[in-house]
């Protein structure tokens, strides 16, 4: 098999990289907006928590409707059109003179961004429908581009804030989105018009097989208890990613560091996801279900303990117990947040595909979108409650609540994924 990357693989990598980079830049720009308006550290934290809880709502709506948009327009066309809209939105936000529209802008970012995974997978599906190994490699590249895009956005954005203001960073995001749109337009391959009478030619990341109409699949999927349980567990990945918008103000307040340095340290979440991808490689190579379940259980236990570690860091005056050094607190926050991300990363990228192929083989595209929709909805709900806890009781209570959520989500996922792993193993043995 030719292991070289094709031009289309590179184009898909760049497109998704640009999409993630633009959305992630808000992690560093939102706290800077609050600082520009002279908000107190506590008010800044409340503001960031508030807009963080709103952003996933755009993802919920996007995952529910954008799959059908992509089916109608095709993956390539829907991708570059949405990236052009994302560029315009990022540019318009840079001219805002108040904090009022920030939440709506973040909702728009998530809505426009949510179509890209599906669109890029559709392009891969059209080109690699009869080449499942290349399809799998393409999905792995997308996961990698997502992580690298977030890491670069946080690092470059934080560095730019030291030399300029958040408006310039937001305008850079607009240019990055234009680059992504151009790459998809030029490198996405020849557009293939969808067949109107066959609504099964939709986005698939499982081997490129045709599936039944999304409309006829909804009832089957929504009635499945497994779908809801896996969806709840899947939300932990979105929760880990969404919480990085809280880390900036948390590091400033608890760690006593500058806003630009705090923004840079939020890369710990991205690095955690990258480490988790490496763990996912080890997970996929395990032969026995028992081994896999042991790894899953351990990862969720570590995530709960690490989140409780963040709660301890949020106790007022905690630095007095570590020699009066707030730098130690900031370092602990950085480490704990990275560990949390690493413990949910491989499940986040692998389990929806695994469950879709095993439990909903005729409706895998629809179930993938709906898993993400549930993840966004649960994340928005949890962060909404977390915002109120933070405003009324402080960081300790907010992170302790998150630890409870990670515990519940981990228990639900652990209980529901085992029979899926068993069935998947049986299916693999039949194919041999």
UniProtKB/TrEMBL annotation:
It comes from the Eukaryota. The keyword rRNA processing does not apply. This is MFS general substrate transporter. Keywords: Membrane, Transmembrane, Transmembrane helix. It comes from Fragilariopsis cylindrus CCMP1102. Coiled coil: none annotated. The chain crosses the membrane at residues 12-32, 44-66, 78-95, 136-157, 169-188, 260-278, 299-322, 328-351, 363-384, 396-422. GO terms for molecular function: transmembrane transporter activity.
